[in-house]
User: Fold this.
Amino acid sequence: MIATGVFGQTATDDFRFAGVVVDEQGKPVAAMQIYGVRTLKDIPKTASDGWFKVDPVAPAIVLRKPGFRSQRVATSEKTPVLITVRQEAIRPYPLCQSRTPSLGIDGFGGHLRFRSALGLDVSGQSSDVDYGFRTYAVRGSKNAIGHGSGPMWSFGFPRDEDVGKSTTFEETLYSVEGRPADDIFGLLKDSRGQLADGSYWRQVGLFGETARYGGVDRAAAETLDQVLDSGCYQR
Assistant:
């Protein structure tokens, strides 16, 4: 829930967007990280009283913190906003079983594996010096999941463009064995949304690895979701 105009202040050109983040009991939430903003150094966080001020680079920002549900916030308001975030326990991402047939990246630090769905065409793996990449496409169409992995491939977060243009947004955070559960960068992000043109996107991402589709209709999304829903982490 977002209420606006409650502080009697206005944002300035120095930061453009400001607000206070509280939990469902109305208590300030400190150290919540803010993504989708202009920064030259550290990722901005809410202060001890929940206050933040940022310079967005997209029509929306995303607030993230382990133990809370990620929240998209539109940045069109010019007065500070009150943002209520919901606590949510982090579940562990499934570990792969050795006998599970799977799709994935060979080498390049690839850990995510998926089951193949009926009616899916799987490409061969293309590689560069520091990444591997393959696609899982709906047969007879260009609708596909692009799966890539490598040390410089990605930070694992959804694209600012996808988040900013979405009319709906949902993200679930998962802990991954061997990675710090108290650090957003150590968590797996399963993010999805729908754009104004009615198309869908979704990304499952870790630091260094992502599997993503975008710009697909509902039928294609349902097929590709079968693949992403089957994901597991190969140690």
Remarks:
- Residues 175 and 187 are 5 Å apart (CA to CA).
- Residues 1-12 have pLDDT under 50 and may be disordered.
- The chain has two domains: 1-89, 92-233.
- Helices lie at 160-165, 218-229.
